[in-house]
Amino acid sequence: GTIFVLNGPNLNLLGRRQPEIYGADTLADVERRCRAVLPEGCDLRMLQSNHEGALIDWIHEAREAAAGIVINPGAFTHTSIAILDALNAFDGPVIEVHISNVHKRESFRHHSYVSLRADGVIAGLGIEGYEAAVRRIGGLLAGG
Ligand code: DQA
């Protein structure tokens, strides 16, 4: 099946935005690294939008088109009941990724709506978190 890797606002600037927090690698680097660990028989679609509705539309599309979702919702993590509701309408595995350790940062980053749905949450591993998430989706799809 296809794994959607969804990225929220400002992640298009990855590598240039606050590199002391998010590192020097770009989203293209993330995609390359995810493809390198893609589980046998899986496909990957790397997506990014700064718009909440676009992310929701892709999650709806995933209902038909994706076996699993890796999502870094960016700041929508902490605000978006609508993204949580969309993920609740998706049946496959969902892994939430944060590049930074959100728990070490401002208290408004400590709560995640998306975590109420996610099967796993990764924070603070840098972009390696995406690779771990893709591997985990593969494992969950294979039945454990
Ligand atoms: C982030 C953490 C969020 O709090 C922040 O708004 C982001 C990126 C991360 O990957 O560490 O945009 O999701």
From TrEMBL:
<dbReference type="InterPro" id="IPR001874">
    <property type="entry name" value="DHquinase_II"/>
</dbReference>
<dbReference type="GO" id="GO:0019631">
    <property type="term" value="P:quinate catabolic process"/>
</dbReference>
<feature type="site" description="Transition state stabilizer">
    <location>
        <position position="17"/>
    </location>
</feature>
<dbReference type="GO" id="GO:0009073">
    <property type="term" value="P:aromatic amino acid family biosynthetic process"/>
</dbReference>
<feature type="binding site">
    <location>
        <position position="78"/>
    </location>
    <ligand>
        <name>substrate</name>
    </ligand>
</feature>
<feature type="binding site">
    <location>
        <position position="85"/>
    </location>
    <ligand>
        <name>substrate</name>
    </ligand>
</feature>
<dbReference type="GO" id="GO:0009423">
    <property type="term" value="P:chorismate biosynthetic process"/>
</dbReference>
<keyword id="KW-0456">Lyase</keyword>
<feature type="binding site">
    <location>
        <position position="72"/>
    </location>
    <ligand>
        <name>substrate</name>
    </ligand>
</feature>
<keyword id="KW-0057">Aromatic amino acid biosynthesis</keyword>
<feature type="active site" description="Proton acceptor">
    <location>
        <position position="22"/>
    </location>
</feature>
<comment type="function">
    <text>Catalyzes a trans-dehydration via an enolate intermediate.</text>
</comment>
<dbReference type="InterPro" id="IPR036441">
    <property type="entry name" value="DHquinase_II_sf"/>
</dbReference>
<comment type="similarity">
    <text>Belongs to the type-II 3-dehydroquinase family.</text>
</comment>
<protein>
    <recommendedName>
        <fullName>3-dehydroquinate dehydratase</fullName>
        <ecNumber>4.2.1.10</ecNumber>
    </recommendedName>
</protein>
<comment type="pathway">
    <text>Metabolic intermediate biosynthesis; chorismate biosynthesis; chorismate from D-erythrose 4-phosphate and phosphoenolpyruvate: step 3/7.</text>
</comment>
<dbReference type="GO" id="GO:0008652">
    <property type="term" value="P:amino acid biosynthetic process"/>
</dbReference>
<dbReference type="InterPro" id="IPR018509">
    <property type="entry name" value="DHquinase_II_CS"/>
</dbReference>
<feature type="binding site">
    <location>
        <position position="109"/>
    </location>
    <ligand>
        <name>substrate</name>
    </ligand>
</feature>
<dbReference type="GO" id="GO:0003855">
    <property type="term" value="F:3-dehydroquinate dehydratase activity"/>
</dbReference>
<comment type="subunit">
    <text>Homododecamer.</text>
</comment>
<keyword id="KW-0028">Amino-acid biosynthesis</keyword>
<feature type="binding site">
    <location>
        <begin position="99"/>
        <end position="100"/>
    </location>
    <ligand>
        <name>substrate</name>
    </ligand>
</feature>
<dbReference type="Pfam" id="PF01220">
    <property type="entry name" value="DHquinase_II"/>
</dbReference>
<feature type="active site" description="Proton donor">
    <location>
        <position position="98"/>
    </location>
</feature>
